[in-house]
């Protein structure tokens, strides 16, 4: 649940390829705070081949510390065997000391806004743990109850690890059917 504490941060949208070394180090440190090595060692998703983001929404607090991060993906895919362009949200993380202030919401909303600025994004997609369905639902995402196909180590596979959610951009976002990401999940 988000608190009433004021949100004061700087957010931007950056191509990952252009991040500076200090920015990359800040992301690494945030990842360690959110996913400590002792927790990550037992995480069931550690064997899944994940797609790295092409863009990101980093959120920095007043002292220049990275406090939240959203990975952003653009992908040509198939929906019911028809070509679509999908915007993806993945790798959402907020520092444990900064949670409950709406930072992840700001980052996810910025990603959706970015998708709307692109000339050809049909809908957006994310995968999340079941406990986060309510959080993303409040941001306008709907659960996808169809089949999500992904590539895993060069082979097509059905993604069943987490739940799938979609968000309309230029077209109605599907809630059933078959989506083929034609690549690893994010």
Write a short abstract of this structure.
The protein is an alpha+beta fold and 186 residues long. The protein has four helices and eleven strands; from the N terminus they run ββααβββαβαβββββ. A hairpin with a 5-residue loop joins strand 3 and strand 4 (66-79).
Would you write up a description of this structure?
This protein is an alpha+beta fold and 186 residues long. It contains four helices and eleven strands, in the order ββααβββαβαβββββ. Strands 1, 2, 3, 4, 5, 6, 7, 8, 9, 10 and 11 form an eleven-stranded mixed sheet that branches. A hairpin with a 2-residue loop joins β4 and β5. It is globular, with a radius of gyration of 16 Å. The two termini are 25 Å apart.
Strand content: 25-35%
Q: Give me the count of strands.
A: 11
State the end-to-end distance.
25 Å
Provide the residue-averaged pLDDT.
Answer: 94
Strand/helix succession: EEHHEEEHEHEEEEE
Topology, element by element:
Elements lengths: L9 E2 L2 E2 L5 H14 L2 H4 L14 E6 L5 E14 L2 E13 L8 H15 L5 E6 L4 H6 L3 E3 L2 E6 L2 E4 L4 E6 L9 E3 L6
Parallel strand pairs: 5-6, 8-11
Antiparallel strand pairs: 1-3, 2-3, 3-4, 4-5, 4-11, 6-10, 7-10, 8-9
Please tag this protein with its features:
186 residues; alpha+beta
